[in-house]
Amino acid sequence: MTRTQRVARPREEVFAFFSDAANLAVLAPASVGFRLLTPLPVGISAGTLLDYRLRLFGIPVRWRTRIEFVEPPACFVDVQLVGPYRRWRHEHTFRDIPGGTLITDAVDYELPLGALGTLAHVLFVRRTLERIFDYRRARVAELLGPELDAEAEEPT
Predict the structure, then answer these.
(1) Is the whole model's pTM more than 0.85, yes or no?
(2) Rounded to whole angstroms, how far apart are CA atoms 125 and 139?
(3) What's the pLDDT at 153?
(4) In which domain, by residue range, is 42 found?
(5) Are the beta carbons of 93 and 73 closer than 8 angstroms?
(6) Residue 10, preceding bond cis, omega within 30 degrees?
(7) How many structural domains does the chain have?
(8) Average pLDDT taken over every residue of the chain
(9) What is the dihedral of CA 126, 141, 75, 68, to 10 degrees?
(10) What CATH number has the domain bearing residue 88?
């Protein structure tokens, strides 16, 4: 799953916002009951561990991610070490565009349980992830300003 969003803020500022673990809860819908367990403040660097608790489909879940890679202010990658997915890798990239920053979230994930996980993905997991990222997009627009037009990208 890949999502993009264009905001009228400098890349350094956008990177700082997204790399601040305190903002994770701000970007999650209340329905997932997100709670960061790692004491703040926590700096984001390669090897940083983040522990949190949330609810997925009403089930309490503990999740641990490790920051795999950081290149300020261009990108960082988090991977799930403990959680509901067999595999979860979330790459956050930030690129200068005229008038602001292009944010790209690329999530590579796989559910456990083979065919049952595939069925769950089709029936509700994919839609739930899309709703979570739709909420995130709306919150980013509220907090960092309205989205720039697609024409704001660099000419090809």
Answers:
(1) yes
(2) 21
(3) 54
(4) 2-152
(5) no
(6) no
(7) 1
(8) 88
(9) -50
(10) 3.30.530.20
